[in-house]
Design goal:
Keywords: Amino-acid biosynthesis, Arginine biosynthesis, ATP-binding, Glutamine amidotransferase, Ligase, Nucleotide-binding, Pyrimidine biosynthesis. By secondary structure, the chain is an alpha/beta fold. It has ten helices and 20 strands. It binds glutamine. The site of glutamine has 11 residues, from strand 16.
Length: about 400
């Protein structure tokens, strides 16, 4: 059964989206027909829907696209950030009837059907987004098919679905086995047994030499992240979320990286303890998104849930260490609670907020002043998004160079 796209004569079945506060939106099935639940969040990215759908940090979230046309460039096998779609549901206004792009291999509707992802189209996504902005992110259900129960029954189901606060999800999305992404060279990336991983489709662009080894803790890593490191001569050993300190140091790393990932950082006790072990040894350390929240916790700061989060590819962030403003890719619903206006004394020395979001002053980066460690709340690997923040990978390289000098 297929949903909202396509040139088929039959319109797709009716669908309804029910929010946990009782508001409902009606439309047509898009992608698979059935029912699904998750946290309703909105993304403001005008492009990059493939990257959004396959970002493991969206596990258990129903993504509402504010861009009205979705699916215009179809789906290809080169752009996914992992081996599958992770969003639990997809909400669009007006799906493309026919994809058009030289790289397109199939329609987004077909891809959603093939992967069993339930979506809805024809929704007034502006009204829905405004509702979420006013009321905050909340649970939602999408139901489609010929026999949809009444809204009271649907609402009861939505209110029984698990909440995002308190959700410990990294282990559900991370690789189960370690694998190696080689440094820049003539080889293609090959990935073993990774449920969430780069695919062979990545071609390493130039020939160079291996300069560093990095242990990357996969909490739901996007495929572009090891690629950005590999481009800088780093051989990346991607380790499962459950890796121990011994396993990290067994690869003899010059640096340790903590990835993005789904869920509530206040549950991530194992990664926090692991990071504290790395900080004690003063090994150069870099964290992205979930990794930033884990650094916050490792230093003794709290984390909290934002009202509706930051998701999209046009968020202005200031690097307070240089004063420069960069336009950046985001996907986070939680944030670190650290003071913006002073250097904090932590058990690993002095720490400060290095980056801040200019829309709402949310902490977007942390750095230690006495140890080689830093992190950002957003996505310097982009995919999709602007490349303004790629310098952060060079900063990681500088830390590793500094440690050798
Ligand atoms: N992209 C991420 O790493 C997201 C981190 C965390 N799950 C959040 O929502 O804030």
């Amino acid at each position: 059964m297929s949903g909202g796209g396509g040139d088929r004569g039959e319109p797709p079945p009716f669908a309804v989206l029910v929010l946990e506060d009782g508001r409902a939106f009606h439309g047509r099935a898009y992608g698979a027909v059935g029912e699904t639940f998750g946290e309703a969040v909105f993304s403001t990215g005008m492009t990059g829907y493939q990257e959004t759908l396959t970002d493991p940090s969206y596990h258990r979230q129903v993504v509402v696209m504010t861009a009205p046309h979705v699916g215009n460039t179809g789906v290809n096998d080169e752009d996914p950030e992992s081996a599958r779609i992770w969003v639990s549901g997809y909400v669009v206004r007006d799906p493309a009837r026919k994809p058009s792009n030289w790289r397109s291999q199939r329609s987004l509707d077909e891809e959603l059907v093939a992967q069993g992802v339930v979506g809805i189209s024809g929704v007034d996504t502006r009204a829905l987004t405004r509702h979420l902005r006013e009321r905050g992110a909340m649970r939602v259900g999408i139901f489609s098919g010929d026999a949809i129960p009444d809204e009271g029954t649907l609402l009861a189901k939505v209110r029984k679905a698990p909440e995002m606060t308190g959700a410990d999800l990294s282990a559900e999305v991370a690789t189960k086995e370690a694998y190696v992404v080689p440094a820049i060279g003539t080889k293609r990336f090959t990935v073993a047994a990774a449920e969430v991983a780069t695919k062979e489709a990545y071609v390493v662009p130039a020939i160079g030499t291996k300069r560093f080894t990095v242990a990357a803790i996969d909490l739901g890593i996007k495929g572009m992240t090891p690629l950005r490191m590999a481009e800088r001569g780093i051989e990346v050993h991607v380790l499962p979320a459950t890796a121990t300190l011994e396993e990290v140091y067994a690869v003899n790393p010059d640096g340790v990286f903590f990835s993005n990932g789904p869920g509530d950082p206040s549950t991530a006790d194992h990664p926090v303890a692991l990071m504290q072990g790395v900080l004690e040894r003063s090994t150069p350390l870099f964290g992205i998104c979930f990794g930033n929240q884990i650094l916050g916790r490792a230093l003794g700061f709290g984390t909290f849930k934002l009202k509706y989060g930051h998701r999209g590819i046009n968020q202005p962030v200031q690097d307070r260490t240089t004063g420069k403003v960069e336009v950046t890719a985001h996907n986070h619903g939680f944030a670190v609670d650290a003071p913006l206006d002073k250097v904090s004394d932590t058990k690993f020395g002095r720490a400060e907020v290095s980056h801040v979001c200019l829309n709402d002053q949310v902490v977007e980066g942390l750095q230690l002043l006495d140890r080689p460690a830093f992190s950002v709340q957003y996505h310097p690997e982009a995919a999709a998004g602007p490349h303004d923040a790629a310098y952060l990978f060079d900063r990681f390289v500088s830390l590793m160079e500094g440690q050798r000098a």
